Amino acid sequence: MTTPPVGRRERKKAATRQAIADAALRLFLERGYDQVSIREIADAADVSTTTVFKHFSGKEALVFDQDQERESELVAAVRGRAAGQSVLDALRQHVLDTWLPIAAHPQRAGFVDLVESTPALRAYSERMWTGYTDALAAAIADEARADQDDLACAALARFVLEIPTLAQGREDRRAAVETIFDLLTHGWEPPGDRS
Amino acid sequence: MTTPPVGRRERKKAATRQAIADAALRLFLERGYDQVSIREIADAADVSTTTVFKHFSGKEALVFDQDQERESELVAAVRGRAAGQSVLDALRQHVLDTWLPIAAHPQRAGFVDLVESTPALRAYSERMWTGYTDALAAAIADEARADQDDLACAALARFVLEIPTLAQGREDRRAAVETIFDLLTHGWEPPGDRS
DNA sequence: ATTGAAAAGTTGACTCGTTGCACTTTTTAA
DNA sequence: TTAAAAAGTGCAACGAGTCAACTTTTCAAT
């Protein structure tokens, strides 16, 4: 039988994967995403280009390594919310508590800059987020006792996942998140006059 | 001065552009997007591959030829709405009147199938729509007498542009559009119990 | 009409992401 | 011990897209 914790094989596999991801991120941060070729990354990690693609589905995936957890956290925030808290408020709190700190973390500033300044990575990142739509929609529908494919729940999920994109570049990101959640909670109405 | 209607030069340019687009669409419909190479399209239109890229920014752009008008129509729907009609209602009407018929038109069925069944085209199409966000947001903000970069207006614009994607694959598309506009108008609330 | 500049098109070679194929190594099971 | 399955690797190739040099066409100003 296979040893439950790890086999030597899978340890080596994980090590190679990590070496590739590390080399890629380092080179990207040094010289920019478009200025680094897969072949250079492969050389830096001392593997062949084929091996890179055995571990990662494409060049963009090298940057977003273990972002599968986000989906789970999102679903968990809805399912495990405090008693009496509405689904929308749970999502609002999760976004405020989880996404804002990450974006503000100085360690990740270079990483965030890299993604923001590279169109291909921006696009990939957005597709990643929208990829969570179905899972989040299912969780919302479940908690709201609606049909599994309820359209309003699916739309809400999609809209919540657009929030990071929309809040980007705003001076006060916390206020931006609040504004959008207010819109989703109460509906849109023409704001007060500016004159 | 240049002849206002057309010069021979620009007519020829437009003709080759059209020849390329026609050849591309025909081949895509016949054999599928991924099974047709740029060189084949160039050959079919009797030009070189570089000429193809002189006219179109990329392979996906061959499919979405003159979809710049959509943006103008969208903005016009908001700006030229009937007196007393709210911005949101104007958008609702525009979506119902303009987008649903196009999708239902039997002539375009093959085209719609092509886009829906090709991941690269789906992604490109969505990025096209979201590209209209800024223009629509500006029009909404203007009509609502809000600041030009008002976040709620930007969010509303983005959400409206997501509607085609969300309504896709639903049996009753009209009802789907109405449901999402109701969500945007009044806010989300847990739907009635299904039991 | 002539001519000269600008635009359109062509060619061919090149880069880069990505994949298919063949080969080697490791692991597993008999 | 050994055969076969699985995993990893490298090479060569394909398609998208770019670049630079060159030819042709068009336009406009003499």
TrEMBL record, chains A, B:
Domain HTH tetR-type per the UniProt entry, residue ranges: 14-74
Superkingdom of origin organism: Bacteria
Residue spans binding DNA: 37-56
The entry's keywords: DNA-binding, Transcription, Transcription regulation
Protease listed as a keyword: no
InterPro entries given in the database record: DNA-bd_HTH_TetR-type_CS, Homeodomain-like_sf, HTH-type_TetR-like_transc_reg, HTH_TetR, MftR_C
Protein name listed in UniProt: TetR family transcriptional regulator
